[in-house]
Structures are given as structure tokens and as C-alpha cells.
Amino acid sequence: MQRTIQLxxxxxxxxxxxxKKQIEKISKPGTTSVTSPSAPARWNNAQIATxxxxxxxxxxxxxxxxxxxxxxxxxxxxxxxxxxxxxxxxYTFFETDxxxxxxxxxxxxxxxxxxxxxxxxxxxxxxxxxxxxLAVTQFxxxxxxxxxxxxxxxxxxxxxxxxxxxxxxxxxxxxxxAYDLPSVLLHELGHFIGLSHESDxxxxxxxxxxxxxxxxxxxxxxxxxxxxxxxxxxxxxxxxNAIKALNTGIQEEKDPEExxxxxxxxxxxxxxxxxxxxxxxxxxxx
Length: 286
Ligand SMILES: [Zn+2]
Known about the structure:
Layout: E1 6-8, E2 25-27, E3 41-42, E4 54-57, H1 76-85, E5 100-101, E6 117-122, E7 133-144, E8 152-163, E9 169-170, E10 179-180, H2 181-192, H3 222-231, H4 234-249, E11 261-269, E12 275-278, E13 281-285
Parallel strand pairs: 1-11, 3-8, 4-5, 4-6, 6-8, 9-10
Antiparallel strand pairs: 2-11, 7-8, 7-11, 12-13
Residues 24, 187, 191, 197, 209, 266, 268 line the site of zinc ion.
């Protein structure tokens, strides 16, 4: 059922800057762009009825210690899942059983587009992803309701990969010598469920487009809760389904982009530079 055509999603990205802060961008490894760069991305109702089965690489096992467990006995990764689950009582974004999977040591990032979704570590990194990236979320989705007011990307697959070749991570929130892994994960999980960056740097949010080695952001904020609820509100999803049905019924009026599969790769960067991208093009750097 998967289409062979892959287009690459470009998101508009403009951000405020801080010295010594890290920033990320949307990379565009493909050759074709989509026409609506600002379309929101979300999972459909069925996928998040009981939680997405996102698995944790067994390569992280050694990092989970009893002292970090919460009252339910859940490790720090599952605690980050629960942070996003707690933003709405309409859906469960992530299963919280902490299922594990053997690490996948793919050298081609597109190979992660397989039958499992997970959180992995890479010791090799990827030729088409910057070595300035701490981590990436790669997602795939289907273009829905193209040209309408509720155009969006219906997410179908995503993975999070941490760059262990070039960076060090820690579970110790008091460490200032490595990146706080739960904080990196919480941010990437926000992208996993379709959130983009908080554009106002005065707003407290785990979706701020930077993370420094000193930052520990292990809890979503009221702004993150609002962003999630607006992306997944009930009336919007009802309207989405109605228009999807309409599109299925009137084939000849479908936009040619309708139903195409797109891919996005979002890098969390660690170079401390301020990079301003618009439609995937670098327009300003300082
Ligand atoms: Zn980000």
C-alpha cells in the first residue's frame, strides 16, 4: 500500500537566537519539494486510540537505573512518553509498556522506514545528515486534504535516532558535560507527534529550537500542552475524517498531491550557531 513516490517535507523555520545555544533545522535530502510547507502533521484517531508502539533500543538498557524510576516503576524514557500522554485525555500518544527492540545499525537513514518504530542510537551516523545533529526524528506521512483549510500530513511512521558518534549523553540531570538524554528525547517525541517549534523564545517550552548542554527540560509546559491540544482537538479530527472520505469519493477532483507520501528529517543541532532557514534554504547565519 505504500507509494513509491517520496517527496520531502520542508517546513518554514525562523527562530530567535542565543549565543552558545544549539539549534536545529529541517534538512531536505531529496530533490522535490511539496507545495505547502506549513501543513501540520498528526497521527490519525485510530493510531493514537491506545498508543503508538514505540520501542526502545536495548542499547539504552544500561542507562536505566532503579533510582530514576517513577512511582509506577517506569524508566526515564517511559516517563517522557507519559509527559506527552498527559497533555490530553482524548488520546494516548505512546504505549507505556517500555517494549524494547534490538538496536538497528543502519548506515542509510531511510532504512529505518521499516515495520517498527523506535528510539535508536547510531555510532556511525549518516552521510546525508549533518554531524552537527545531536539527534534526528525522521517521519513519514500521507498528504491529506490538500488545498483545504485543514490540509495536513497524516503521520504513518517515525523513528528517533541519537548521534552517539559525535556526542555524549547523560541521564544525570546534574551533569554539565553531556547532553541530557531525557530532555533530547522529550523534544524529539514532540516532533514525533507532529509538533513544530515554539517560535517565541520568551515562551517556556520543550519545543524551543535549541538545547544547551546545561539545559534539563524533562517536563512539558502549559505552552506544550496547548500546542498538542490544538493539533489534536476533537472537532479538527472529525473534520479531517469527513474530508478524507470526500476525497476518496471524488477521485477526479483530487489534488495531484493528495495521498502522496512525504518524509521529513528534523535535526537537533549542536553547533551553537544561529541558522535561519526558510523553505529549507539558509537565508541568514550569525
Ligand atoms: Zn526540534
